[in-house]
Amino acid sequence: MAKVCVFLAEGFEEVEGLTVVDLLRRAGEEVLMVSIGTSLEVTGSHGIKVSADRLFEEADYSDADMLVLPGGMPGTLHLGEHKGLTELLIKFNEADKKIAAICAAPGVFGANGILKGRKATCYPGCEEKLKGAVLSEEAVVRDKNVTTSRGVGTAIAFALELISQLEGEVKAHQIKKSIVY
Question: pTM of whole model > 0.70?
């Protein structure tokens, strides 16, 4: 079982965050929803309130296998402004540990030099934030330890790709079949 941290900021895109949490938990992963704010309650960009499992400062990342950023506005802006999170992402990337982002959130990777020379995708119109990336319009793109995706409509494909990376194609196919995707 892998440990995955999904970071929630005020204004995150609920479908992108919760689809990843749901499908990874169905696959048997330990998934922690981590609030980067001062409260465990985080309100998404469409007014849905979610109760995170931990505050950023209280979580242990030493045994985490993957970090995931959902998109949404202004959630993505808050993620990019959080110094502790950006330092953690850089540290994971330097150690070739898995990091993933969807929608506008790959821009956080771009702003921190993580995408230089790597293939990446994002929500249409956010491409300029993928500094140094080789741009793609594919639904989900994996380049080494970095996975990116385009938005709400690609959230299931994104989550299945993450399952494939953590548990293999067979498990990803089982989950895909179980949700009739």
Answer: yes
